[in-house]
Amino acid sequence: MLSLALALVIAQTPADPALAAASREDRDGWIVVHLKGSPHTVGYQQGALLAPEIHETRETLAALLGERGGHDWRWYRETTHRLFWDKLEPEYRREIEGIADGVRAKGGSEDADDILAMNAHIEVSGYYLPMIQARQRGEPPKSDAPMACSAFVATGSATRDGKVVMGHNFWWGYLTGERWQVLLDIKPEKGHRVVMDSLPGLIHSGTDWAMNDAGILLCETTISDFTGFDEGGLPEFQRMRKAAQYSENLDDAARIFQTGNNGGYANTWLMADINTGEIGKLELGLKNVTFERLKDGYFVGSNFPSNPKLIAEEARTYRPEGNICELRRLRWIKFLDGTKGQVDAELGKQFLADTWNEKTQKNDGQGGALCGKGLLGGAVNAKVTTADMARKLSFWARMGVPDGSAFVAQRLRGTMPEVKALTHLRDMPGQKWMLFEAPK
């Protein structure tokens, strides 16, 4: 009801001069938001334009994290403030404060600590919390790293025009994954213009898919079974946003990701420089980091760790045999080896919507499918771009299951009535591919 009240307040509020350079459009399941100005202004614009969604997302996260990890939202607010607030660069503190100010200007109640906790919830719940819980029990840490996302980046002889093609679909639990429906277009006061998909209230992507007007493309898949967290490091969400905003080449991106690395949300980052046609793969562990680059060929990601030393030291429970990450890697290799010299945006869409399971040899969307469809979660959006599109900050995006099928909330609610957080679950209708084009 509060979300509805916020929406009515926004509809009835006189024109806000701070929103003159900003806009919102709801299209094909996405919320497309254009933001421009100083850090506080950019934040305020997002908070004001997405106030109902930010409030509803915060309530959903609080319910889910409270049931799953045994700590309430107050704990997340206090913990993220202690871990991260003083480490944030001033512009990102101001943007977070701006988001909170924008929400409250439209009748909401969220403050800066709420917004900070939303931005940090993945690395705190999935990396920091398992570490301290294991420490309290006197046990080795157990990984809570999500097996999230399938992605590829190709260039040179792998693609139809010899230029970069990149694609990514986001795997997540349906409860929160269906809310990753925001396309942020940010023209900041400093650095480069950034376009990324995101969750309401975030200053980074979280999925992660981003590009900037310097021609740098970024996406990732999580390193599954990863353990490790440095409480003294810089938050992953800041490093991701900074890499997207300030990188002018692949070396910049790799350096920013590694500077102050805290091990939170440890990912294999796929990246590209459309100016040089070069692609990169940064496997970013806490102790072990590997950076590869190519001007001809491809890299893929489906949550599998590659570096043997990283597996031995930081992903000790990872076993490739029958693992869905390895099944998806096999599917990627079959696709990309079998379509050498043909890869373009249309093929990229087909890859990301593929439901073939290498284990069952069926189109069931289970386990080893690139477009996974599990009971609790799976692929919930997809994006693909080419060098020519990215030069215009443009890409294809499909909100919802990448093959266009619908998710019916009652299927999950009916099987797990004891999970109270599922009262926030909603249907996710099938959507078509939408062409996002950033205005000049």
Automatic annotation (TrEMBL):
Q: Keyword Ribonucleoprotein on this protein? A: no
What Gene Ontology molecular-function terms does this entry list?
Answer: phospholipase activity
Keyword Ion transport: yes or no? no
Q: Which residues form the signal peptide?
A: none
Q: Which Pfam families match?
A: Phospholip_B
* Keywords of the record: Glycoprotein, Hydrolase, Lipid degradation, Lipid metabolism, Signal
What biological-process terms (Gene Ontology) are attached? lipid catabolic process
Q: What InterPro entries does its record include? A: C45_proenzyme-like (IPR047794), DCD1A/B-like (IPR047803), PLipase_B-like (IPR007000)
NCBIfam families assigned: C45_proenzyme
Descriptive protein name: Peptidase C45
